[in-house]
Design goal:
The complex is a heterodimer of chains A (248) and B (167). Chain A is mainly alpha-helical and 248 residues long. Chain A has one domain. Helices cover 71% and strands 7% of the residues of chain A. Chain A is built from seven helices and four strands. In chain A, the strands form two sheets. A two-stranded antiparallel ribbon of chain A has the order 1-2. A two-stranded antiparallel sheet of chain A has the order 3-4. Chain A is globular and about 65 Å long. The N and C termini of chain A lie far apart (55 Å). In chain B, α2 packs antiparallel against α3. The N and C termini of chain B lie far apart (175 Å). Chain B has 167 residues and is mostly helical. The mean pLDDT of chain B is 90. Chain B is built from three helices and no strands. The chains are: A mainly alpha (248), B mainly alpha (167). Chains A and B meet through β2, α1, α2, α3 and α4 of A and α2 of B.
Amino acid sequence: MVSFAAEPIVRLGFFSVTNAFLDTLLVDAFLIGLIIAVNKNMSKIPGILQNIIEIMTEGFYSLAQSVAGERAAKIFPFFTSFFIFILVANWTGLIPGISAVGFYEDHKLIPFFRAATSDFNVTLALALVSAFATHIMSINTIGIKGYLSRYFSLNPIYLFIGFLEITSEITKVISLSFRLFGNIFAGEIVLGTVATIFAFLFPLPFLMLEVVVGLVQALVFSMLTMAFMAILTTPHHEEAKEVSTHAV
Amino acid sequence: MEILKNFGFDPVMLVAQIINFLIIFYLLKRFLYKPVFEMLKKRQDTISNSLKQAEEIKITLEKTIEEEKKILLKAQNEGKNIIDEARLQAIEIAKEIEENAKKQTEKMIVEARQQIEYESKEVESQISEKVSILASEMLTKSLEGIFSAKEQKQILNKSFKQIKKVN
């Protein structure tokens, strides 16, 4: 049975190298390889890989534009990076046989690799980066005064709303990290359980399901980040105007 | 905090993962999105330049066709003018030739008439001479037995005078 916490493989002083961390390095290696491959064969007449990357880039950029308008150029790198990183991290855990390679410890198989996003540290790190980036972008776009006016006001009603906003910022981090962790970790458990029932063919539909779950979760995380960034980079009074316009 | 520990929360790992993601984010932004956007922009520029060039070529082609039409029309008009002028000239030349021919014919006719008149007169004088000779011979022959030589001479002179009067 897969444990909540990622299993340590090696201990380097105070730093414990876990199987999820090794998977993160695997994801890094894949992404760096992708960057090198794309840059090496970059030309005006694109190859298959460049074509895929260009279609993805253009698609994501137009999506960011439809959500964030003029601020798309700032939001796009975060949105796309979260999507690519999480997608690859989710799917590395689905490589057939990856969780079967490891070592035994107390009659229990410890795999060398485990989907990076099935480790809470990874999802929390991603959620924290998302939250910090959102707030820094908000300050840069609408200014410190506009940013603080969202949370603090002399008007007691707005002050209360500000308190709710601060609470929602904390819950955003919790929901982002636990949603991703929960879905991918649950997938790992489902696949492990199904494989123990019958190892051949039977896990295939579940594997396909997890492929879709991995894609959907990557999209959900990145889309939510983009939405939060779009909301927080909109000045508070303009947001109120938009709300009233929609109400009319 | 205990709940987080149950989920495997490790502050050192959290920081490591944050740093890791930030590095990957920078690499993707600097070495993937930027070159891809630059390439897309370059391609877009090439396409717009090509479209612009195509538009310019189209305009030039339209101008050339227009000019060609003008030149053709001008040439047609010039050709028509030349043909018309040539036709007029031909008509004038034909008229001139006809007039010349007429004049020449008239001249020839006048000359022929003069020639005929002259020749007729010549023939007439020759005939009258011959007739005179014949008549004198006939008269001499018929007078030979009847009149003397002197009388014959007088009659003959008289007759010649008479004939000359008639002519």
